[in-house]
From TrEMBL:
<feature type="signal peptide">
    <location>
        <begin position="1"/>
        <end position="22"/>
    </location>
</feature>
<keyword id="KW-0802">TPR repeat</keyword>
<protein>
    <submittedName>
        <fullName>Type IV pilus assembly protein PilF</fullName>
    </submittedName>
</protein>
<dbReference type="InterPro" id="IPR011990">
    <property type="entry name" value="TPR-like_helical_dom_sf"/>
</dbReference>
<feature type="repeat" description="TPR">
    <location>
        <begin position="67"/>
        <end position="100"/>
    </location>
</feature>
<dbReference type="InterPro" id="IPR013360">
    <property type="entry name" value="Pilus_4_PilW"/>
</dbReference>
<dbReference type="InterPro" id="IPR019734">
    <property type="entry name" value="TPR_rpt"/>
</dbReference>
<feature type="repeat" description="TPR">
    <location>
        <begin position="33"/>
        <end position="66"/>
    </location>
</feature>
<keyword id="KW-0732">Signal</keyword>
<dbReference type="Pfam" id="PF13432">
    <property type="entry name" value="TPR_16"/>
</dbReference>
Length: 253
């Protein structure tokens, strides 16, 4: 249930598919750039990096000033472990659209993945503060993740709470709070957010596993046994069930 790196592609696709106004200069080029960018993002999602790279190069040739193409190029180069090229493309996206929340979010993600937490958090906050940003909670959650990586659990929790304030219905903000409260040994808070989360999302192996770990931390043997039984019967082949059978109770992912 944890946020995967390329969950950020959802907002990126929205940015890439921005409607081109009829009075824009070089509208055909912008249309081609938008289409190729979306194709590249989809191939990237599938793990077909060579095809994605071909399409993003076509997008940048169609319109060198299309910011979304630069962001997708950055993601592609990152997956290819060409970090210098990835950084160059992310920075070019921001040069072209310095206030764009998606460009800021994606570069913040890159910096956090590269171990530059404080720099990355600054870009997440720039994204979240943009009044036109449709999903500020996404950037606040990633700021929390980045902060937690550095060991500052209290600081991370504040970001998750801000995310929840920005989007009260956010399941991911609650999930991250649960994981964090388990680490902080604040079991009552973990159980409270667990109850809320179960009302927001469909049953799954990941949800059952998280609930099991909360019940285990609370010393609720009956609840723990109930979720263990659910995992074994309803999700016998799930990775979470394998963790249960291997007694890997600290495994969050």
């Amino acid at each position: 249930m944890t946020l995967k790196p390329f969950a950020l592609l959802l907002s990126l696709l929205l940015m890439a598919s921005t409607v081109v106004r009829a009075d824009d200069d070089d509208t055909p080029g912008k249309n081609r750039a938008s289409i190729y960018t979306q194709l590249a993002a989809e191939y990237l999602r599938r793990g077909q990096l060579s095809v994605a790279l071909d399409d993003i190069q076509r997008a940048m040739e169609a319109d060198p000033k299309w910011p979304a193409a630069r962001s997708v190029a950055g993601l592609i180069f990152y997956q290819m472990q060409d970090y210098a090229s990835a950084q160059k493309q992310f920075q070019e996206a921001l040069r072209l659209a310095p206030e764009d929340p998606d460009a800021n979010h994606n570069y913040g993600w890159f910096l956090c993945e590269r171990g530059k937490a404080q720099d990355g958090i600054a870009y997440f906050l720039t994204a979240a503060k943009n009044p036109l940003y449709a999903t500020p909670e996404k950037s606040l959650i990633k700021a929390g993740d980045c902060t937690a990586k550095g060991g500052d659990l209290e600081g991370a929790r504040l970001f998750y709470l801000q995310a929840l304030k920005a989007r009260i219905s956010s399941p991911l903000a609650r999930q991250q709070l649960i994981e964090l409260d388990l680490k902080r040994n604040d079991v009552p808070e973990a159980r409270r957010y667990m109850t809320e989360l179960q009302k927001l999302v469909q049953p799954s192996a990941a949800l059952a596993w998280l609930a099991l770990r909360v019940e285990r931390a609370a010393g609720e043997k009956d609840g723990e046994a109930r979720y263990a039984d659910l995992l074994r019967k309803a999700y016998p082949d799930a990775p979470e069930t394998a963790r249960l059978l291997n007694n890997q109770y600290d495994a969050a992912e």
